# Entry
Amino acid sequence: MIELTGHSLTIDQMKRILIAEEKVSISENSMEEVYESRCAVEQIVADKETVYGINTGFGKFSDVIINQKDVENLQLNLIRSHACGVGDPFPEIVSRAMMVLRLNALIKGFSGVRGELVELLAELINKSIHPVIPQQGSLGASGDLAPLAHLALVLIGEGKVYDNSGKIIDSAAIFSEKEVQPITLQAKEGLALINGTQAMVAKGVVNYIEAEQLAFDSEWIAAMTMEGLEGIVDVFHPAIHEARGYPQQVDVAKRMQEWLEGSKLTTRQGEKRVQDAYSLRCIPQVHGASWQALDYVKEKLEIEMNAATDNPLIFEEGKVVISGGNFHGQPIAFAMDFLKIAVAELANISERRTERLVNPQLNELPAFLSPEPGLQSGAMIMQYAAASLVSENKTLAHPASVDSIPSSANQEDHVSMGMTASRHAGMMIQNARRVLAIECICALQAVEYQGVENVSPKLKKKWEKMRGFIPSITKDRVFSEDIEKVNQVLNPLHQNNSVLEKEICIK
# Structure
């Protein structure tokens, strides 16, 4: 059970909530904050004060005063009208993340919602009732309005959810089955549910979990390639990396040494050649730079995961109510664009290593790792596929955060496109993992040609595990099936994998 406080949620806790579907609870102090904040809203309503989102319209309609008898309809109309997302739905894990993050934001006590609402959110999370939320339609500035509106629909007993088999059904059906009571939204609650960055951050958290594992996996796969190409291990000497000073670079070099310790396939400088190509020699520098970006992304995500991004926010027991712009997703838009670049480079350098494994002009292995060069093509077209994926990533890496388009009659005249950045980052991670899968298949074959008995003890275990999924290339076959198998093995979110177990193995 993870206790949510609104202030202390971490990526590691999110892994437990998302992967293991660990349940959540709300701290007593947070519930007190929720209660006090709600009292302030009810006092505003009773005193007939004019406050944005409580008794006014929204966006360009902010100057329209709403009659007190219409306050509930105002919130209901808001959710229905804003639920105009399009495209394929997010995976369930992203939907679950959105619910957790929205709950964590509301219990900070700045949003003025009732205890019943946050308790309902927690109940849905703990009963694994996940809304079906279309991926497209958010500008990432007035909050992720469209995606969060689809989440809010479920709280009022409308909209769609996933059942236990992953089938999409009406929320009313699952509510009846699991004895859940929908809620009638009161003053401010609809706005509080949809103002925020929780869609882009939820996708960003899932992206980070996948990208972090991708970065770890890229190291042992690169190490196996080093063995397949009899690479020079002097390049991982700690003195080189300490001389430059980047801790992430130092860490990558250290892990590479650990993966290759005891190998009889690697060489020293001058034994076979003086220097390797950059894709081998500069692994710590390139991978380390990607780790720097990942560290930045994690820092920003963990701040935003615990941020109040509603509007307006309520302070000092209702004495101060301020309309601001914490819903603007620019920090996460930048972080996701940075993540895209980091992931692109892990894939770029991996594809270049694959080229070195299959190109007979660059190694002493059979051409294209083919069992019968000429008659059988071997890994030739796998490298084509990798090249295609890294080229596609280069187009997706174009920053979404530098774009903006006005909305709401120019009231909302600068937007972040953070949701777009987050979605594109997710697409790039899928591409990059398949590029690594291709390098992995080629590296497995290369060390087999070189002599598996000479592989380092740590990599021998990896080789044996992967050979349980991917047989040796003894003749040409449909390699796309092999690529997908490795992709699934490397995917920390795949149903047969455990992120927590993989991390223990890594560390």
